[in-house]
Amino acid sequence: MYGYKDNTQQNDKIYVLADTVSNQSCAVPEGKRIPFGWSAAAVGASSKEWVRLFWSVPVSDQPGYLRISVALDLREEVCVEVVTAVTSVQIGMLDIRYASVFQPYQLQLTAAQMALISSEGVELRLVKGRAPLWIFTEGPVEAPLLLPHLLRTPCESFNPWSRLSNTLASMSSLQPFGWLEGCVLDGLLDLEGAVGGGHFRETARKHIQMFFDKQGILRYENPRSEPVDGQVYGIEGTLPFAALAQLEPQHPALEKAIAFWLSERAEDGSIWDGAMLSAEGCYTIAYPMAVLAKIYRRVDLVDSALQQLEIRKNKLVCENALYLRYLSDGSRSFCHWTRAYAWYMLGFARTLRVLQEIIGLPEAILRRIDLLKRELARVAEEVMKYQSQEGLWFVYVNEPYTGVETSGSSAIATALAIGVQLGILDRNILSICDSARGSLAKYVTSDGILHGVTQNNKAGEELQRNGYRILSQMGTGLAAQLEAAMKLVKPYEVS
């Protein structure tokens, strides 16, 4: 059972927000924007750019974490030194690499360090990196994860899935509009379908409202923190329209998504990201396209959704190996990457689930759907060979030294569970999903965020292979999708 209200009270007690921020004012870089008009500060190398955080509430009884969250897109590796604000005692370093907006970072603290910090405050200094690191300093109290805070480590045991669902169903799970936020929105709506109660759906609605003005016009930033109001920034930016269509099927922005897809279609019907055809499109294009096809009863969108899956199957699969990207010169990259399987399989599973709900499709369309079901079964059989003893999948599924990766593992297991739900996969596969679910619980923080996620691939494959891991609301959304899928397919067995 999900005890949302009880867990809200519990989570409130473990967050201790910084109530004073001291820093020299600094202009946001030209062409960039802080989301929602929230307050942010720039942490730089000069003493004039050091940021100080202070607490009025003493914390002395338990260990925990210092947390900050990124407010502007980051395209480099930076390191932030944390020292106490009065006596300059060094507490530690925050290693922040290629971060996206809203990404939280944490530094583990002893009980003595927690007491010292809450008494003196801390000073943040950039010791590696070219440009200042922008962090959120003020925002809604409903999003404590995104504001500077101390996190108390609870002494009592807790249900990780209850905590995860609680945090997801809050403003702390906000992500940039696009594929990151889409994973969160789908997790919320999936939990609503599996659990009910209205709260998850209402939170999804609140999330979406953050990105639209009163006239229904999109107000947001692209992955580089550049304002792109009223536009669709790219193929990964259309995933949230699946949730929007389910919540507000008459919203005027839905036509923007359809117009974007139509404008980007190649002669064969495929939709590329510039010179690249990516596995992401199975999830970020085909799936929302299928949702709109169902709502608007448009067979042309059904046809286009199927084309996105069919063409990606033909271009991204080579000798049973799956690639994330196919380039116009015929080359491929990110072979056997976990999140390539994640986007490919999740896109297939979710798209097929929506299309199966549409009544009266032409026989030719149904035959194409059957072929795609076979492809989901094939790739499922292939990826299951690589499940680790821990129950998860490695960053590169065939390379154990790269370590397990939790977000891709969540999505793969979700796709498998949906495949069972649709009758495409055998029910005995649920044991694989159960194994993944059990192991993922170990990676849920005490306040309900998924850890063990590889960074976004802005820095290429090297960053994926080097063991670097982050906390992620996107990953939390994918884990919630698994939890919901398991509740739907095993309603009496998942607690």
From TrEMBL:
<dbReference type="InterPro" id="IPR052043">
    <property type="entry name" value="PolySaccharide_Degr_Enz"/>
</dbReference>
<dbReference type="InterPro" id="IPR012341">
    <property type="entry name" value="6hp_glycosidase-like_sf"/>
</dbReference>
<protein>
    <recommendedName>
        <fullName>Glycosyl hydrolase</fullName>
    </recommendedName>
</protein>
<keyword id="KW-0378">Hydrolase</keyword>
<dbReference type="InterPro" id="IPR010905">
    <property type="entry name" value="Glyco_hydro_88"/>
</dbReference>
<dbReference type="InterPro" id="IPR008928">
    <property type="entry name" value="6-hairpin_glycosidase_sf"/>
</dbReference>
<dbReference type="Pfam" id="PF07470">
    <property type="entry name" value="Glyco_hydro_88"/>
</dbReference>
